[in-house]
Description:
The complex is a heterodimer of chains A (332) and B (372). Chain A is built from 13 helices and 8 strands.
Amino acid sequence: xxxxxxxxxxxxxxxxxxxxxxxxxxxxxxxxxxxxxxxxxxxxxxxxxxxxxxxxxxxxxxxxxxxxxxxxxxxxxxxxxxxxxxxxxxxxxxxxxxxxxxxxxxxxxxxxxxxxxxxxxxxxxxxxxxxxxxxxxxxxxxxxxxxxxxxxxxxxxxxxxxxxxxxxxxxxxxxxxxxxxxxxxxxxxxxxxxxxxxxxxxxxxxxxxxxxxxxxxxxxxxxxxxxxxxxxxxxxxxxxxxxxxxxxxxxxxxxxxxxxxxxxxxxxxxxxxxxxxxxxxxxxxxxxxxxxxxxxxxxxxxxxxxxxxxxxxxxxxxxxxxxxxxxxxxxx
Amino acid sequence: xxxxxxxxxxxxxxxxxxxxxxxxxxxxxxxxxxxxxxxxxxxxxxxxxxxxxxxxxxxxxxxxxxxxxxxxxxxxxxxxxxxxxxxxxxxxxxxxxxxxxxxxxxxxxxxxxxxxxxxxxxxxxxxxxxxxxxxxxxxxxxxxxxxxxxxxxxxxxxxxxxxxxxxxxxxxxxxxxxxxxxxxxxxxxxxxxxxxxxxxxxxxxxxxxxxxxxxxxxxxxxxxxxxxxxxxxxxxxxxxxxxxxxxxxxxxxxxxxxxxxxxxxxxxxxxxxxxxxxxxxxxxxxxxxxxxxxxxxxxxxxxxxxxxxxxxxxxxxxxxxxxxxxxxxxxxxxxxxxxxxxxxxxxxxxxxxxxxxxxxxxxxxxxxxxxx
Lengths: 332, 372
């Protein structure tokens, strides 16, 4: 396996971040599948998610904060800050009736809304809690790897920033200490990696470059792999399409002409996207110093579990090409 | 039906909704461009923190001020763009309504206010609608196109005003501005010993004196909230008025459509006028007579034209892959269409061979959005 990918699976927490709609959940699911194939027990968490990961893996979404099995060594969990706070309070205050009164009270709602970043902080805390959680019987760790399907870019940054902010704001208190622990883990390259997902198009690339600069330059978090999703690779050249276009006139029946025209249009479409994708991959390569794995566009009638399996296989295979490129860079 | 031309003519406010990554910003910009090109003073309002509209309009920066879009074929002053800075919008609200400079300064420096204006769920959306109402009231525009924030659930946008109104509920606000409350936690114990105790623990643990800040915030802002409920009422009136319509933007992907379906249902429950659905990045199976196009038919044809088996196979293969995607898109859109009430226009914009991020490219969408 590609060294970049191999290194990735030695960490304990992998964040998968990027713009909305580029395929974060798909990549997170695929990474989870690869990890289970490597013999790891994996928890895939969705932050503020809408149950997309569960959907892609073909299971019903579980209640917030509880793991649901999606295979022998893969579980899925939805994490949400307010629920994480409730869970935390249950630990401090185990009287159910009182807790219900608390949760129902308006003061509680205002407290949650008013305490800056409390939701984000508790979400990050919950992620690390799961990463370090041990089985009470065997005292083994429950999960070898936690993969986080992060919310879209802007929100992700709020989550990743929060522990730093909290550490600075409450230096000495309990929150200050907890935050410092989270920050220590977040910047530890043996523990964490932030992976980025994008498509090779103008707007997603702009956002990805911005996000990279903030995570790398500002938060100093260890980076994993840049996944470039939906890459087109036309297997033919423009000259063949031009030839086809010139010879359209030779087709005399209407149906044949229509079919040939459609073949030509689809060829142009694929070639057009191939060129766009190449151009933006170059830009990504120039501006983002991360190992890159390209995932081919999936042509399918429906996108489901089978396609995610396919992408997992693609990531494993494609990674060889990415590493070869890297060694080439290394030599020049 | 002439595509969406009629819709633009009949409405003054067009709100584009939909989940993230479906081309909402591009669609909104393209609709606005059409409005401007057909002689209406148009503004497009976006609330996107990623400054995507700026990209889509080929501009380097959009501030919180109205900025004129310049492009070939466009009369100067016909098209403007406004990117809402959420923080700025709250500040503006405070600036406008604070009774004195002292109170204004006190609000602006309040931690709860700063937090609320930055990240309270829905505040962003609420401010967008505030801004919309204001642009509408100014009378400076014939057409206002709104690009909604990239929320996971497009509905957040519609429900935000009510949520904020609930949050700033006057009954609760009054309760918060009682003098004893600002004094701190001590008095809370008399109300509920355990709850008071727990919150004190929470404050100690977190080091956040949250409720004192909340109380101070509400005390300073109390005057501003008197006008709040009528404002929210006005907002919903505008959203439901005959001048306003909603355009749902989607792609024919399973997940996107599941969310879109939910959106359509809620929009009907809220009595808001959904008038059109725009599908972006659509692939279609080719419509050739009654008989589907068979693989060997394509192959024979291409071999005859190109005289080269390898090249023919590659192009035929490419064609059949797109046909497969087209078949899926078609089935999903058909199923979705059946759920829509009558009178909702459905527009399909094909997947282009190129990215859309200039005014000229926005115009490339027009034949599909406004086809006769």
